[in-house]
Amino acid sequence: MMKAKVTLLLFVLIPFFGIKAQQPITLSEDSLQIGKSVLPSISVTIPEADYDKTLKAWIRELQSGTRSKVVTENSEMSIFGAKIKSISSNPINVYSKLDRQESQLLLSASFETKKDEYATGSAGVPEYTKALDFMKEFSKTQYIEFAKEQADAEEKKLKDLEKELSSLENEKSRMEKSIESGRSTIQSENENITLMNSELATVNTSLQGQDTLLSTMEAGTARTELEKQVKELDKRKKKSLSSIESSEKKIQRANDDIDKATKAIPENEKMQLKVREQIAAQQAVYQQFAEKLKTIRAY
Question: 285-291 long-range contacts, Cβ below 8 Å, gap at least 24?
C-alpha cells in the first residue's frame, strides 16, 4: 500500500492541438510495501511509456555494473548490492515496483543506503536529492524514447510522402521528355520519308527507262549488264519502301506515346497537388511531435 506525503510537480503540461500532448513528470515522497514491510520510497510517473519496455529498462539500469540480479516476486522487485554511483559510491539495496496507471506508469523505489537507512527527505539523508534526480532522469529517458518513436514514425510518413512526390515529379519529367523525343522522332522520320520518296521517284524513273531499253535489246553482254542494273534498282526501290514503312511505324508509335503522355500529365499534376497538400499537413503533424520531443528533452 502506498500513501503520498509530498508531491513535487516538476513540469507543466503544454498541450498541442491534434496530438496527445506531453504530460508532466511528477516525483513524490512515498511509501512502498515489500512483503510485510512498508519502506520509505520515491515515486515517479512515466507518461505514455510501454510497460514491458520500461520494466526491462529499469531492471537493466539496476543491474548495470554489478553481478547482482533483480529478484521479482508478486511484481515486487529487489536487488542487493546495486551500484548506482549517481546516488552513492557504495553498493545499495533497492526495492521497487512498477504499476500501470491511466496513460502513464508509476515507478516506486526505496533506496537502502545502509542497513535500515533509506534515502528520504524527512531523514535528511544526503542521498535523497541524488535519488530524486536518478528517478527523474530514468523517467525522462523512457519518456524521451517513447516520444522519439512517435516523432520518428511521423517523420517516416513525411519522408514517404516526399518520396512519392519526387517519384511523381520524375514521372512527369519522363513523360515530358517522351513527348519531346516523340516530336523529334516524328520530324526525323518525316524527313526520312521525304528523302526516300525522292529516292523512289529517281529509282522509278530509272526503272522505266531501263525497262524500255531492255525491251529493245537482244541477248548479249550489254543486256546482261543492263539486267544487273535493273536488279540493283529493284533492291534500292525495296529498301526505300521498307524504310518508308519503318518510318511510318515509328511515327505512329511516337504519336501514340505523345497522346498517352499528354493525357497522363494532367492526372499526374492532380496527384502531385494532392500529395503536396498531404505533405503540408504531415509537416505540421511532425512538427507537433518534434516540439513535444523537444519539450520533454528540456524537462
Answer: 285/18, 285/19, 285/154, 285/157, 286/151, 286/154, 286/155, 286/157, 286/158, 288/16, 288/17, 288/18, 288/19, 289/19, 289/147, 289/150, 289/151, 289/154, 290/151, 290/155, 291/16
